[in-house]
Prior knowledge:
The protein is 76% helix and 0% strand. The protein has 196 residues and is an all-alpha fold.
Amino acid sequence: MPQDNLNPINQSEQWLTEIYRQEYFGLMRYIRGFVKEKEQAEDILGDSMLKLYRKVEKTPGAFATSANLKNFLVTTIRNACLTYLSKEHPHNKIELDEMIADDAHAALQLEKSENLLLLQSFINKLSGRLQQVAHLAWVEGCSVEETVQRMEIGKESVSVYRTRALNELRRLILSQGGHLSLDEIFMLLWLLYALF
Length: 196
């Protein structure tokens, strides 16, 4: 996300484009926690970014900190997901009510998306197929089957690459001990295993 104490001058189309570019995979992962169809998830993200743009256009400097922006964007996305689900699955009212009540879910998904940016910097250090498989697994949230289809390789190969990538990422993260806080190391390792 952008820096804290955001300057209204920075809240322009270019600024919003940069937010979209930096946060795309984390926000898509968050949306797909609610909405499984990729096309619908992309529509929700696009509509939410448009609402953010309109908010900035209507009220320049509306977001004094990146926390304000995150709250607005996550709330907008979450509401759009719940609206979509209530229209598509009106018979699942109890399940939707549970989702609305589950603020811990939203907080966890947001924390994951922030840590995904840090994890992505480690994934970028991997080579070739390991990097591709790791990106699909941990950044885009693809299943083994989806990875098989996208990379056009066998299921066994994907499983081997995922395991190798996991081990290499763990090694890279642990070797960065002096550059990362203990909390960051713990969260990255937790994220690796939680999403494996």
